[in-house]
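Hi support team,

I submitted a single chain yesterday and got back a structure, but I'm not sure I'm reading the token output correctly. Could someone confirm the output below corresponds to the sequence I sent? I've pasted both exactly as they appear in my results page.

Thanks,
R.
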Amino acid sequence: MSTRAPDWAGCIRSFFTQVMENTDAWPQVAALFYLLRGNPRLTNTSSSASVLSASAILFTNYSHMSLPLHPRFLLFAGSCLGFCAGGMEAAEPPAVSLAEPATAVTEVLRDAIHSLQVPLPGRGLSQHPFLFTGEWDHRKNDQTIFLVRDGKVNWSYSIPIKDEHGVLQELGDATLLSNGNIVFCRKVGASEITPEKKIVWDLVAQPGCEIHSVQPIGLGHVLVTQNGNPAKVMLINTTTGKTEKEIVLPATHPEKSHLQFRRVHQTKAGTLLAAHLDGGKVAEYTEDGKEVWSYAIRSPWSAVRLKNGNTLITGYPSIVREVNQAGEVVWEFTQKDAPDYKFYIFQEASRLANGNTVICNWCPVHVKDPKNWPGTVQVIEVTPEKKIVWALSAWGDPVDLGPASSIQLLDEPGRAEDGDLQR
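Hi R., thanks for writing in. Yes, this is the structure output for that exact sequence:
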């Protein structure tokens, strides 16, 4: 079926001409760009898409309804939008009249945006089988772990957003083991659960402490990091429940547990690689707690020792950086490498066997209104050449995954509990 490109440019020009003559319309234009911001589906692969992205990004500071908008800039941005949209397949442009109520105009603009959507790269939920968790989905009373296979939710497990004491629970680190069990943490504790949803091991964080990192060490042990005063890493036998080893980690702010650590994992060499979230560095420690390597980076969330000896780090707000032992940057991915997308906070990043990197893009802090979360991208897979080959945005039918903190791809070779995955 053939389609023709509608006269979006003419529609937008007409709309912005009216805006020039009617300042009451400025909030409606702000609403338009608020909808544009962070929605990668509006962009295509042509160079004109970069113009659209630039316009939307420049408009970030003008998206609040109470701020004045410069008419000439509105005309410029509208022209950019019309230019980009004119080459895309879409339905007839709507008739936009400023005589309509602001809410009605906003609805027309939203419909127009939806008609411009183009597919994201990859096959959506079918790209990989995966285990997915995310923290602080405050839209819901339950927080859910998802196991996705063949594009469908194969298994899930939910916990209340608050525990019995009214303390917020946050799903973070999670790993599917070769025996089918899942090890996960929830801020107020950590657990191992069977496919039948039976908890076979459980740890409750000490009062005033938090747990955001749990790593399986074989099938009978876990490495748990407990933020607190002091912050410590514990090797626990999940059969006996006994703590077999404990290492105290230096914390920048011992009295503030929440931001101390998010990922502390053991390397293949047996050392500990700790992302000091509030300390601005990634540090490597021996089994007796001696620091032997470090790299300074703003607010690191996760750090992974790769098979090539380098370290893959996520930093604030949206940086993935691979550095060698000398501290030299050998690969980096940031917002500037993908201007047609909107990134927020990169939490977990992992390196695949084929050399690609998978990144969790967590949005709740930067996108305040959860009604605007849908349309944002939760996970991306990027090649060494920085081409995005998979972008996942699953906020509704058939599943609403919620914000992205952790993802384990299940088609990667090796056993997670043996440290074979680069995550």
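A quick pointer for reading it: The first strand starts at residue 130 and ends at 133. Let us know if anything else looks off.

Best,
Support desk
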